């Protein structure tokens, strides 16, 4: 099953690449709530082929991702739990609800930086009626930093950027996630302290 999905993803990447910026924009929208192909898989080769337009491609990806976040939110709000139930198990749904309710904007930061797929979270944000402006803004900021980091690496390092991204993006993302988790824990302790006093 996993190998079939991976094969399908590999087949879809050239399709989006074929349509250039429009394909990248459509993928960036759809990936947030339905498509399994990460926009990085199209953003990176497009930027390598045309480094002078890499920043523009980065902005296209960020804009599409923001629109996709809003669409995913409203899909969750209108279609509700049945869609999310197909994506995650009931206990995971409860964890997502707790994370979003307790740490809305901080949770969006964590989601954007981490390799965790956004789809369940954007849909869950709509189901659980998280503040849409805060959620979308913070998710867009975190994903925007991720996409622009890739683009700027390509601009400065050229083709060696692919190796750099493969080697260091995971550890850097992990460090950022740890920082965000610490910030969430600190915020949670502060709230608990305020309630006690």
Descriptive account of the structure:
This protein is mostly helical and 197 residues long. It has one domain (2-196). Helix content is 85%, strand content 0%. It is built from nine helices and no strands. The protein has helices spanning 2-18, 20-31, 40-49, 54-79, 81-87, 90-113, 119-127, 132-157, 160-196. α5 (81-87) packs antiparallel against α7 (119-127) and α6 crosses α8. The radius of gyration is 17 Å and the shape is globular. The model has no long low-confidence stretch (mean pLDDT 77).
Give me the secondary-structure topology.
Layout: H1 2-18, H2 20-31, H3 40-49, H4 54-79, H5 81-87, H6 90-113, H7 119-127, H8 132-157, H9 160-196
Structural class: mainly alpha
Order of H and E elements: HHHHHHHHH
The strand count comes to 0
What is the average of the pLDDT values? Answer: 77
Q: How large, in whole angstroms, is the Cα Rg?
A: 17 Å
Form type: globular
Give unreliable regions as ranges. Answer: none
Strand content: under 5%
Helical content band: over 70%
Number of domains: 1
Query: How many angstroms separate the termini?
Result: 53 Å
Biggest beta-sheet profile: none
Summed up, the helix count is 9
Question: TL;DR of this structure?
Answer:
Helix content is 85%, strand content 0%. It has nine helices and no strands.
Salient structural properties:
single chain; 197 residues; mainly alpha
